[in-house]
Amino acid sequence: MLRRLAPALLTVLVVALGVTALAARPPQGTPQRTADFVVLAGIAGLRWEDVDPQTTPTLWRMAQDGSIGSLSVRSAHRPTCPVDGWLTLGAGSFAAWNGSRPAGGCPSAGVAVEQPDGIGANLPDQESVVQYNQQRLPWGTLPGSLSESVRCSVAIGPGAAVAAARPFGRVDRYASGLPADPRTLLGSCVLSIVDLGTVDGEDPTARAEAARVADAQLARVLAARPPRSLVLVAGISDTAQPSRLHVAVADGPGWERGWLTSASTGRDGYLQLVDLAPTALAALGRPMPERLFIGRPAVSTGGRPADLTEAINAPADADREAAAQRNVSGRFFTLLAGLQVLLALAVLPLLRRARPHAGPSGPTPAPARVVAVAELLLVAAALTVPAALLADAVPWWRGEHPAWIFAGVTASLVVAGTAAVRFVPGYAATLGPFGAVAGLTTLVVGLDVLTGARLQLNGVVGYSALQGGRYAGLGTVGLGVFLAGALLSAGWLAQRVHRRWRPAVMVAVGGLAVVVVGSPYLGSDPVGAIALTAGLSVAAAISAGGWLTISRLAWATMAALAVGIGFAVVELRRPAAERGSLGRFLSAVGDGTGGFTVHRSSTENFETLVNSPLTVLALAGGLLVWFALLQPWGGLTRLFGIYPAVRAALAGTAVAAVLGGLLDGAALDIAGAAAAVVVPMAALASLRVLGHAADRTRPGGGRSRDDGAGDDSGFGGNGPAGGGDGPTGGGGPLGAGHPRPISGPPAMVGRPPTPATPADQTPDEPAEPTPDAPAAPPAAPAQRPAEPSEADPSDTVPPPSGPPRQATRSSTEVAAP
To answer: Nearest to residue 280, comparing CAs of 83, 146, 85?
Structure first.
């Protein structure tokens, strides 16, 4: 009874771990009112490389006294043109200006601003802009939400008018330029928005001159600022392709000498453009609008270097890294997909020739050296993505040729990792490389997550702050590689224990992975944690052997649903401003606006499916598995039969990767990242299993089923799971001389065979001849005698006084039922 209840009990444990990890969230606190006035000053295109004591002395002093950060200016249009940036600032959500624009460019016409009364202004195009954002774009943004949340607002300059215009186009107070004495105008309303100009182009001299002019205007604003005011300076937008990170500075009470951050980024020193509107309202102590902003209020955190030059170098360096990452990432994944496809094609003939034939005819086995080289190439292919992640520990983006430097560092790490796997103890075992690569992959990604995911931010195989999708935790590629490594490690470890303990091992290792993925302190990916829970439940259900029955599938599905429902309940109980992505989606479903999120997710899935090179990796891996490895000559079905825990791990990985991609809007990207690790290892293990398909072994004397002999557990047998080895105890390359002797024990003349009894075996374990049973003749008509050097001393049986009689036995490579 306990054995039948164990899967359900383990599922409850996974659910408890998952919900606990997902429910725990760092305390954020309620933003307190810190100012009576807020001034938002925007300079389109301003980057940290434009800021220095000589060119921008005012901004330099402001950064010295206040808090600074890198600003991601993502909007509803790529690139974020100045008019898009100003509109997004005033909306607090991703927005874009309608009208014609060249491909990848910005609208050529300026914004029409009418001043009918000399006090305020009117934007005649605002109504069409609101309709465009509400009906044509997937965000459901309402332009003018910021100005609607205060009684009165001031706009200085045409860009500021776009940000301050209410949804019907009215600007409360407006001036086309900064007055000679702006003190009265800035003090007339609690919220003032100022357009300080644009810094564009790539010519350093022109950029420096534009920054100097904007800095002089900023000096006048600071001189006229109202008492107890917060001044926010932001590089409000891009000015051309490609996108860059921009300046963000906050100066006022409570914002002294720190890093800017927000709950939307979760990382010190990073802020989004959509965070500025809720920051202004929070500083003024005003309530958020009914339709919540996408952004979250910014806060100031400690840890900034005392030296301002050193502090500014950090966001400037992050901008350079993000720009280099964008140029290198696409080429890296395209090259990786191409190389893995070529390697798969090269492995096919080796698979066809891997299985030895006992008869007089058959394909000639590939040379052992060729197979050994192919195995090392498969190991190197599986380690490429973890090596690329580690490569970001080296500042390759600072060099003159960053792409070549990154390629060199990654190649060196791949060679080092492959050598480490090759010389690790147990490499000769059938599952030796499988376990080593899985463990190394999990270790690399896990340590990065535990130390703040610094290698993934702006990393080639991580995520870019320029995209504005994620700033902390596990990215798409990291999630795919980590869940694959964790489940494969769990399967490898589970194969080494008795079958009744395999679900427990699976849950123990996989449960830790669920915590790492879902915890807001670590992976910060609740959707990934739910997908991993589903995959883990499937893996635990079939890890002891057998098929994925309806009942097993049912409790596996219930485990994933329980984690999702549990986290949803916890999310909905939080204040609206503190909810995560799942909580916001459920709230949107409740108020009837969830269709925007569904439409946006489906659009992202389609665009990613069509444009991502990881789709090629996923599809190529699936084709190799289906049309080669799962064929009778492919070896994977034999591997599954011998190592049910490995089969379970691979099945769980497939479920988690596909489900995570669909729920996260990543299409096949997560599956492609997982396939980059899983498929080469599956091909390598299949090669080794096929190489030992004709081996014959015999059980040692005196062992019974009570100690696990005869099943495929890791203890007490010569079988496949005996420490992860193959049927011969050494699963190295073909022709490496691993087969055990085929000569059986001496024949027991005159002694009848002892039949197995129900007490000797359980229904779900395969029967195995006992040492006293007569040897069963093999299927092959002829066997060669084993050489003495191939014999395993542990299997040596003292010969009788007379000449021994040769006997053969079937291989203990038996499939678990």
So the answer is: 146
| Rounded distance between C-alpha atoms, residue 616 and residue 620, angstroms | 6
- CA-to-CA dists, residue 524 to 89, 256, 471, 566, 696, angstroms: 26, 29, 10, 16, 50
Phi, psi angle pair for 726, to nearest 5°: -80, -170
Average pLDDT score, the chain: 79
Separation between Cα atoms, residue 101 and residue 184, nearest integer Å: 38
Cβ proximity of 211 and 217 under 8 Å: no
Q: What is the spatial distance between Cα 239 and Cα 669, in angstroms, rounded to a whole number? A: 30
Q: Given 3-state DSSP classes, what are the helix, strand and coil percentages for the chain, each rounded to the nearest 5?
A: 50, 5, 45
- Do the beta carbons of residue 176 and residue 118 sit within 8 Å? no
Whether residue 40 contacts residue 234, with contact meaning beta carbons closer than 8 Å, is answered with yes
Contact predicate 65/256, CB 8 Å:
yes
Q: Give the type of residue at 395.
A: P
pLDDT (tens digit per residue) in 705-722 = 333 333 443 333 333 333
**Buried residues in 220-246 as b, exposed as e (16+ CB within 10 A):** bbbebbbeebbbbbbbbbbbeeebbbb
**Cβ burial, residue 693 (10 Å; 0-12/13-18/19+):** middle
Q: What is the pTM of this model?
A: 0.78
- The predicted-structure confidence for 609-658, as pLDDT tens digits, reads as follows 667 888 888 888 899 898 888 888 888 888 998 999 999 999 999 999 99
Rounded to whole angstroms, how far apart are CA atoms 124 and 112?
7
Tokens standing for residue 513: 């992975």
Higher-confidence residue of 502 and 526: namely 502
Q: Is 405 helix (H, G, I), strand (E, B) or coil?
A: helix
Coil, strand or helix: which one is 249?
strand
Q: What string of DSSP letters covers 191-236?
A: EEEEEEEE--SS-HHHHHHHHHHHHHHHHHHHHTPPSSEEEEEE--
Q: What Å distances lie between residue 209 and 17, 151, 201, 218, CA to CA?
A: 57, 37, 11, 14
pLDDT exceeds cutoff 70 at 410? yes
Q: Give the model's pLDDT for residue 294.
A: 85
Tokens of 650: 């691979």
CB 743 within 8 A of CB 807: yes
Scanning the structure block, which residue is given the tokens 């990073």? 270
User: 245 is written with which tokens?
Assistant: 């990170």
Q: What is the amino acid identity at position 513?
A: A
Phi first, then psi, for residue 260 (nearest 5°) are -85, 140
* Residues 656, 534 contacting (CB under 8 angstroms): yes
Q: Coil, strand, or helix at residue 167?
A: coil
What's the pLDDT band for 17 if we cut at 50, 70, 90? low
d(CA 415, CA 733): 19
> Please, which residues bridge with residue 153 across strands?
191
User: Are the beta carbons of 179 and 185 closer than 8 angstroms?
Assistant: yes
Give residue 66's identity as a one-letter amino acid code: G
Query: Which element (helix H / strand E) includes 43?
Result: strand 37-44
Taking the CB of residue 323, how many other CB atoms lie within 10 A of it?
A: 19
Which amino acid, residue 726? G
Q: Which residues contact 485 (CB under 8 A, 6 or more apart)?
A: 438, 439, 440, 441, 442, 445, 677
Q: What is residue 164's predicted lDDT score, i.e. its pLDDT?
A: 94
- Look-up of token digits 């520990």: 393
Residue 128's SS3 state is helix
Q: Which pLDDT belongs to residue 14? A: 59
Nearest-angstrom CA–CA distance, 200 and 714: 66
CA angle 792, 370, 358 (to 5 degrees): 55
φ/ψ region of 634 (left if φ > 0, alpha if ψ in -120 to 50, else beta) reads alpha
Which pLDDT tens digit goes with each residue over 76-132? 888 899 999 999 999 999 999 887 777 767 776 678 898 888 889 999 999 999 999
Report the run of H or E that residue 262 belongs to, with start and end: strand 259-262
Please report, as a single letter, which amino acid is at residue 354: A
